[in-house]
TrEMBL record:
Pfam families linked to this entry: LytTR (PF04397)
PROSITE patterns according to UniProt: HTH_LYTTR (PS50930)
InterPro entries membership: LytR-like, LytTR_DNA-bd_dom
Natural source organism: Methanobrevibacter millerae
Top-rank taxon, per record: Archaea
Record protein name field: Transcriptional regulator, LytTR family
PANTHER family: STAGE 0 SPORULATION PROTEIN A HOMOLOG, TRANSCRIPTIONAL REGULATOR-RELATED
GO molecular function, one term: phosphorelay response regulator activity
Domain HTH LytTR-type: 43-146
């Protein structure tokens, strides 16, 4: 999908025009987001050549892999262009960094267990697993209220 953005100080109220040959689910979601004030609860991600809109509550994990940030949901994974530190700035307290390369949704944690050399192991409800590094462990425990 081609997207054009025009920024002008002469425009008093922002508006969007969508030109399409078919009303798809993604376009319907985009319209809902544009019309609502809750756009901070959504994240635009790449799904192949398409752009998908995800609700933050549906995201399990953000992880850097092969110099790209992957977004994991229950059954799928997507790519985003933002670096991990910028993603982290836009997230609410439901998300916490557990390592240099990973941010998880606290609401999607299945279990946490001790791991090697003072680290902890985390498993999410969709089966994803990762380690919580010692550096981020105090912040993780605080986020859990421990």
């Amino acid at each position: 999908m081609k997207v054009n953005l025009f920024v002008s100080k002469d425009i008093k109220e922002a508006h969007a025009d969508i030109h399409t040959n078919e009303l798809t689910d993604n376009i319907t979601k985009a319209i809902a987001i544009l019309e609502s004030d809750d756009s901070n609860d959504m994240l635009a991600v790449k799904n192949g050549s398409d752009i998908a809109l995800l609700e933050l509550g549906d995201i399990y994990m953000f992880r850097v892999e092969d110099k790209q940030v992957k977004v994991y949901t229950e059954n799928s994974d997507y790519l985003i262009k933002k670096p991990l530190y910028q993603v982290e700035e836009d997230l609410d307290q439901s998300f916490v960094r557990i390592s240099k390369t990973t941010i998880v949704n606290l609401k999607k944690i299945q279990r946490v267990a001790p791991s090697l050399k003072g680290m902890m192991f985390i498993e999410l409800k969709n089966g994803l697993k990762d380690n919580i590094s010692r550096k981020y462990l105090p912040e993780f425990k605080e986020a859990l209220g421990l």
